[in-house]
Design a protein that fits this description.
By secondary structure, this protein is an alpha/beta fold. It has eleven helices and eight strands. The model has no long low-confidence stretch (mean pLDDT 94).
Length: 310
């Protein structure tokens, strides 16, 4: 089996806090070198909620210029509270030349939870207007999960659905979908499900951690592909150690991603984050950097040495 990963890539800002396409291309080269795909403009790790339409356009275009023809370059527009806005954001991404647009369910603002007929109508309106390859996100990022029966029905009726992104739901959700599906799509799952889901039809992984350790993820996928389970388990242990370390800052992945970018001096690290996020004070960043160097992850050690931390 050939395994892939599509990462929700961070958006790079320069020291003045502006979107910087040159830094973005440098940052994306790390994914290209690791043969990993990217989602551009994500609401979480890509800070898409804090970008205006012009900035989103620039981010999409930078991703397409750097990645298209080399690795997957998809768009992950932030979730919206109406079909109209979802359509507008999806068409903007499509116009910029991305290959697939990820579509979320309605945003759960002010505790809004759509009733079944409302959610169905939302998807039908969006998918009737976005005649372009799309992925559907089942994760309850919006405050609720999309019923697998609805996703299977939409995939049957709208052939432009080419992939399903299944983070934030239990692995039983994936197996239920597999029973219901009558069409072929790609399934992207969190690393916690690997390798069992990958051996039951999943295509690859989703993972924001690959913003920082892309080569480690590629090594993990390569080990799974050649069925070297000992090496896969060893590498998974490294990834798990990293995830456990950044967990205290993971109420939103943007924060710890940008902390790593700053202390490891990765492209865009000086630009920091957009509000409402804030980077910790320098003393906390120093302590964070020291902890990174103690994890024993070879890829992090190499970056730390290049940044003068070791």
């Amino acid at each position: 089996m050939t395994l892939d990963l599509v990462a929700r890539a961070a958006t790079t800002f320069n020291a003045a806090g502006a979107v910087d396409e040159g830094l973005q291309r440098q940052f994306l080269q790390r994914f290209i070198d690791a043969r990993l795909g990217v989602f551009m403009g994500s609401g979480g790790s890509g800070e898409g909620h804090a970008l205006d339409r012009d900035e989103l356009r620039r981010v999409y275009l930078a991703g397409v210029a750097a990645c298209k023809g080399k690795v997957r370059v998809w768009a992950n527009p932030p979730e919206q509270y109406s079909a109209k806005l979802t359509i507008e954001h999806s068409l903007l991404a499509a116009e910029c030349g991305v290959e697939v647009v990820n579509i979320y369910a309605l945003a759960g603002l002010h505790s809004m939870r759509p009733l079944p007929y409302e959610l169905k109508a939302y998807y039908e309106e969006v998918l009737s207007a976005v005649n372009f390859p799309v992925a559907l996100a089942a994760q309850p990022l919006v405050g609720y999960s999309v019923p697998p029966e609805l996703i299977a029905d939409l995939c049957r009726r709208f052939p432009q659905i080419v992939a399903l992104n299944l983070t934030g739901v239990p692995d039983g959700y994936f197996f239920k979908l597999r029973e219901l599906m009558t069409t072929d799509v790609e399934y992207f799952v969190p690393i916690a499900w690997a390798p069992h889901a990958l051996h039951h039809g999943a295509t690859g992984l989703l993972g924001t951690e690959s913003n920082i350790i892309p080569q480690t993820y590629r090594h993990y996928l390569d080990a799974l592909e050649r069925n070297d389970l000992d090496e896969a388990a060893r590498t998974y242990g490294l990834i798990r150690r990293f995830l456990d370390y950044v967990a205290p800052w993971n109420s939103g992945p943007t924060r710890w991603i940008k902390m790593c970018m700053r202390v490891l001096k990765l492209p865009g690290g000086e630009g920091g984050v957009r509000e409402p996020y804030r980077l910790p004070p320098d003393d906390q960043l120093h302590s964070f950097a020291t902890g990174l160097t103690r994890l024993g992850v070879p890829e992090i050690d190499a970056m730390a040495k290049a940044a003068g931390l070791m």
